[in-house]
């Protein structure tokens, strides 16, 4: 990929041509990340980001004037669209199917700075390929978030459930459990409720399952309800439109125990990390059969 720093640039990628308008426009001004730099970072992230957006319904957040400007969510595919962009219609919404690098760069040119993927798959939407607990802090800065994530990981380990922690790229942490695709969202939600309520009882000064933000105080919300059809997650390896250009990044449990910070992982260092560690979410935990633990939880209900 090559481009001159002009008012427009043409990128030739996989037999497609993508016009990059205003390549010098600063999207993350304080971090010096222009639209051209962003496109280059998307190319580097694409083998990983596409893996978790392929076969999903995509919601993007667009920042036409960069992270310091106004933003809006986009579910429907922008029009007009190039022929290489494929869509996935459902519930009267024509979602972009993010399944190629040209499509990713086309979205990047429109200043789509965040990529949120549905939990359900486009093909066979009833049986998810992962189960997720979302740890959502009530405070903008939560120094206990990695302690909380570590406690969740230890509990899952005692239940013989292997998991991968991931920064949201904002303030939270998500615990991802790859599963065999034979459990419905409702059955996995019953497991999430059991875990969340146990944590809130065992650590009442740290966790809550209270849905209303105003009633949570400074507790960390164990959001087991988010994992459901029609809902989304910040896709692994999506950038986030925040100062520092953080990237939603899978972690090792050792990094969690050391108390790493979500801001440690960003567009300017993610390539080096991926070269060193690869995709931890794809390589560290295989899909699991949670049938026995779900049956136990359901028997208690």
From TrEMBL:
DNA ligase D polymerase domain location is: 38-280
Q: Which GO terms describe its molecular function?
A: DNA ligase (ATP) activity
List its EC numbers: 6.5.1.1
This protein's source sits in the domain of life called Bacteria
**Identification of the protein by name:** Non-homologous end-joining DNA ligase
Q: Give UniProt keywords alphabetically.
A: Ligase
Catalytic EC class: ligase
Which one Pfam family would you cite for this protein?
LigD_Prim-Pol
């Amino acid at each position: 990929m090559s481009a001159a720093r002009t008012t427009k640039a043409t990128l030739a990628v996989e037999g497609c041509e993508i016009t990059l308008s205003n390549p010098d426009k600063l999207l993350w001004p304080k971090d010096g990340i222009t639209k051209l730099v962003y496109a280059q970072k998307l190319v580097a992230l694409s083998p990983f980001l596409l893996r978790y957006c392929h076969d999903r319904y995509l919601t993007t957040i667009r920042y036409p004037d960069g992270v310091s400007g106004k933003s809006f969510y986009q579910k429907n595919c922008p029009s007009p669209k190039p022929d290489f962009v494929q869509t996935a219609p459902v519930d009267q919404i024509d979602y972009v199917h993010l399944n190629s690098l040209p499509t990713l760069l086309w979205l990047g040119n429109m200043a789509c700075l965040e990529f949120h993927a549905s939990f359900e798959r486009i093909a066979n939407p009833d049986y998810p390929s992962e189960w997720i607990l979302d740890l959502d802090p009530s405070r903008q800065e939560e120094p206990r978030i990695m302690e909380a994530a570590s406690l969740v990981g230890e509990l899952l380990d005692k239940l013989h459930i292997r998991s991968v922690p991931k920064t949201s790229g904002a303030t939270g942490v998500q615990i991802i459990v790859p599963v065999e695709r034979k459990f419905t969202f409702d059955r996995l939600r019953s497991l999430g409720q059991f875990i969340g309520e146990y944590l809130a009882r065992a650590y009442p000064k740290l966790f809550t399952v209270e849905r209303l933000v105003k009633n949570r105080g400074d507790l960390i919300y164990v959001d087991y309800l988010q994992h459901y059809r029609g809902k989304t997650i910040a896709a692994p390896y999506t950038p986030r439109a925040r100062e520092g250009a953080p990237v939603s990044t899978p972690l090792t449990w050792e990094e969690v125990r050391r108390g790493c910070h979500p801001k440690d992982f960003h567009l300017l260092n993610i390539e080096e990390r991926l070269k060193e560690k690869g995709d931890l979410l794809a390589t560290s935990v295989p899909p699991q059969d949670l049938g026995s633990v779900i049956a136990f939880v359901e028997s208690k209900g």
